[in-house]
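Reading group handout, session on sequence-to-structure problems. Before we discuss, look at one worked example. The prompt was deliberately terse, the way you'd type it at a terminal:

> structure AbrB family transciptional regulator

The input record follows.
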Amino acid sequence: MPQNEKMLEGETLLAKVRIFADRPLDQIARICGYVGPSGRLLKQKFCYALVLAKGFQVPGREESSPKRRGRQADFTTRVHGNGNLLIGQTYTHRAGIEPGQEFFIEIQADTGSIFLLPCDGRDLRV
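And the output record:
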């Protein structure tokens, strides 16, 4: 199916999937038009369309959202094998931390809390 054709949805999608049910899922997704501009298979989008076509609603996902956001912050992290603790861009942005900014690290022993104290005097608690 040419890339400029619309991705099938609803009953049209279900009918096409039934016709090609004996083929691999990747091939069915391509036949139904779930191919990106670069030729990459859009398998997750295909599966989501199948779920919607069967009448199920997926909670927490807006169908009309034109632009998907990347990975969302969950405010948890873990210490890497080398002992480093990665905070990540999402968190530093929210805290107003700028690239190159320097900090004093303060550890509160009784709670295990870590505080980042900017060298410029601002107080950021992480």
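Points for discussion. First: The mean pLDDT is 81. Second: The longest strand covers residues 103-108.
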